[in-house]
Structure formats: structure tokens, C-alpha cells
Write a structure and sequence with these properties.
Blueprint lengths: L1 E4 L2 E5 L1 H12 L6 E5 L12 E2 L9 E2 L3 E4 L13 E9 L13 E5 L11 E4 L3 E4 L2 E4 L9 E2 L10 E3 L7 H9 L4 E5 L3 E7 L3 E2 L10 E2 L2 H12 L2 E8 L3 H9 L6 E5 L10 H7 L3 E5 L10 E4 L5 E5 L3 H20 L32
Parallel strand pairs: 7-8, 15-18, 15-19, 16-17, 19-22
Antiparallel strand pairs: 1-2, 3-14, 4-13, 5-12, 6-8, 6-9, 7-11, 10-11, 20-21, 21-22
Length: about 375
């Protein structure tokens, strides 16, 4: 539902505006590309990944101790230890080349594969080695202190779905499965143009009446945070023709962002530029405060154009309401990322973005 607001024909509620915009532009995920795990952090999977084999592939010691037959430890205690003959040792990284028969044991280290015949590991603190034998002070059932084949991951099991962002743990899992490269979505290219006669680039002299263009860096950082790749187009004066030329120069961008000039005053020319470029205005004016003058449009080639207000706080609000979700759609994310502020962190849960359309004021 929408309601009338002086200066705009109507203010569209946030969910309605977002739904109408996405339905109009029909955002599809970017094409896949293959990257090495060393470059995969916070990239988004383009394809499902299944485990190529069991992990571990065979029984593996979960701690240091003695590989034994569990039946040989029945009844063992501090008062009545079982004595087994030590027939060798097995170290991690080396294939076991011995077999454990009844009454025998082998020294074993964490991560080493169990020798043939063994089905349990007695922790080193519950054993004492004497010459060529070892006293066992506790009984262990079969597979105690052993990682069994496929215990971590079963071969053929679906482990990561397309649309999953790759954090440290996901990358670690892929590495454990010896998968060096993965197919991920290309980072959406987001072109950013900042409009206004009053802004100058950061680092330049700031004459009276001018302000530094902080939005270039605020929004550029937020684009990266959301998973996109920013492409800065520069400052554009309050001239629709200049803005059209600037936007048309970014033909390889997946999303166009502009700041400033989105209201309905004489100097506010973004909606004029959209129409003169042959585009379609889907939404102009949303029920958010700050962020009311947001403009959601579609270029003739179907690409989305989001006009953000020039007031920084309002621009940030509208970016989070409309631009970030557009980037997430282009990435094909399966769930909404964690509220921004944690680098390129992602979560299945995220607090709602609240915006009110009932308070007066600018922005």
C-alpha cells in the first residue's frame, strides 16, 4: 500500500518498492568463474559441491595412545591391567605396515591410520610401556577414540549448496576434501556516479559552499561489503545530459548507482535523466525516513538504476534497503547476509532493516 506525500505522487512502502523493482528488472545471478581456494574468501558458490570421497578414508586415531583390539582390553583397570606386546608404531602421514593380532598393540599418534586388526585406541595416559610390552589400565569398546571412515564427510554427500558464501570454515572443508578450485559467481560490477555542483573530491581544496565527496568512499566500501565490485564514475554536475553520458559510459556495469538529485526540486535531475535516456521509473519516493527520495529505475537495456539521496545518512539507508539486496540477488545468495559492519561476514540470520514513512523531514 502507498500513500500521498507532498512533492511525490506517492510514497511506496519498502517491501512493495523492492518487490516491484526486482520484478521489473528481473535480476539474474552473474555468470560463474573458477577461483582457487586462496582467492575464494566470501565468494558465493555458483554450483553445488559434493564430497568426492569419505573423510577420513579409513579409521584414524583421534589421539595419541596405543592401537589395540578392543576385546583385549576387557576387564582392564588400575588394579588389574592388561599386558599387551608392542609390535611397532604408526605415525601420522605414514601408511600402517603392521597388523595387530590378539594380545598385541602398537604405539599410534593423532591422525595416524589404524593398523589392520586394531579397532580402538587406548589413550597414552591410561597405559604404561615397559620394555616390549604395555600395561593397559582401562578397557575401551570398539571404535573408541577412533574417527571412522566417512565420520567427517561421506563420499558423494552434498556438502555445500550453490548460493553459499565461502567463509573460513567452508574453505577449510573444501581443502580437507582436496578440492583446490571452486566455481563462484562473478562479483557484480556496480558503477557509482555522484551528482551535485556542491561536491569536490576528497583531498582537493574545499571552497566555501562546497563539501568533500564522502559518499564515494562510504558507498564504495558498502559495495565491497555487500559482495560487489565498485566502479567509480566521478562527480557529475547537475545536468541531465552529463549524467546520461556518464551512465552510458558504464555499459559493462551490472548495477548503476547515483547519489544526489533524486528529489523533485529544480536542481534534482536524476528522474529527468532516466526518462530522457529512455529508461523507466519504477518507484520514486519511498516510505523511509531518512531515505524518502529514493529512485528505482530501469535502463532501456534492462539494467537497474538506483538513485540514492545526496544526504549521506539517507543514502546509506537506501543502499541497505535496495542496492545491497540487488547485489545479493546478482550473487545468487541463498540467504540474507548478516547486517553489514563485520567486513564480508555472512549469516543465515539478519536483523530486519526498519524504516518509517510517518515522520516528516528532509532526506
Amino acid at each position: 500500500m502507498s500513500h500521498v506525500w507532498r512533492g511525490f505522487r506517492r510514497l511506496t512502502r519498502i517491501d512493495e518498492a523492492r518487490e516491484s523493482f526486482f520484478r521489473s528488472v528481473g535480476l539474474e545471478p552473474t555468470e560463474p568463474e573458477e577461483v582457487h581456494l586462496s582467492e575464494a574468501l566470501w565468494r558465493v558458490l555458483a554450483e553445488d559441491v559434493s564430497a568426492p570421497a569419505d573423510v577420513p578414508p579409513r579409521p584414524r586415531a583421534a589421539l595419541d595412545g596405543y592401537a589395540v583390539r578392543s576385546s583385549d582390553t576387557l576387564g582392564a583397570s588400575l588394579e588389574s591391567p592388561m599386558v599387551l606386546r608392542v609390535v611397532g608404531e604408526v605415525r601420522a602421514g605414514h601408511p600402517p605396515d603392521i597388523t595387530i593380532s590378539a594380545g598385541e598393540a602398537a604405539r599410534i599418534f593423532t591422525g595416524a591410520y589404524l593398523p589392520e586388526g586394531a579397532d580402538a585406541v587406548v589413550p597414552v595416559e591410561y597405559a604404561e610401556e615397559l620394555d616390549e610390552s604395555v600395561e593397559i589400565y582401562t578397557q575401551v569398546p570398539a571404535w573408541r577414540n577412533v574417527a571412522r571412515p566417512g565420520e567427517d564427510v561421506k563420499g558423494g554427500e552434498l556438502i555445500l549448496r550453490a548460493g553459499t558464501p565461502l567463509g573460513p570454515y567452508e574453505i577449510g572443508l573444501l581443502a580437507e576434501l582436496n578440492i583446490p578450485k571452486v566455481s563462484v559467481r562473478r562479483r557484480p560490477k556496480v558503477a557509482l556516479a555522484c551528482t551535485g555542483d556542491e561536491i569536490v573530491e576528497v583531498g582537493e581544496e574545499v571552497p566555501l559552499g562546497k563539501v568533500p565527496n564522502s559518499l564515494r568512499f562510504i558507498l564504495g566500501s558498502m559495495i565491497i561489503q555487500a559482495g560487489g565490485e565498485p566502479a567509480y564514475l566521478g562527480i557529475v554536475e547537475d545536468d541531465p545530459d552529463d549524467l546520461i553520458r556518464t551512465v552510458e559510459s558504464a555499459r559493462d556495469a551490472d548495477l548503476i548507482l547515483t547519489t544526489g538529485g533524486t528529489s523533485v526540486g529544480k536542481a534534482d535531475m536524476v528522474y529527468r535523466a532516466v526518462l530522457e535516456a529512455g529508461g523507466e521509473i519504477v518507484v520514486h519516493g519511498v516510505a523511509a525516513m531518512p531515505g524518502r527520495p529514493a529512485l528505482l529505475a530501469k535502463l532501456p537495456d534492462g539494467r537497474p538504476w538506483i538513485g540514492l539521496p545526496g544526504y549521506p545518512v539517507a543514502a546509506v539507508v537506501d543502499f541497505r534497503l535496495f542496492a545491497a539486496p540487488a547485489i545479493w540477488r546478482l550473487l545468487g545468495l541463498r540467504w540474507k547476509p548478516l547486517a553489514q559492519g563485520c567486513g564480508r561476514g555472512w549469516s543465515r540470520r539478519s536483523p530486519p532493516l526498519r524504516a518509517s514513512g510517518t515522520s516528516p523531514g528532509s532526506g
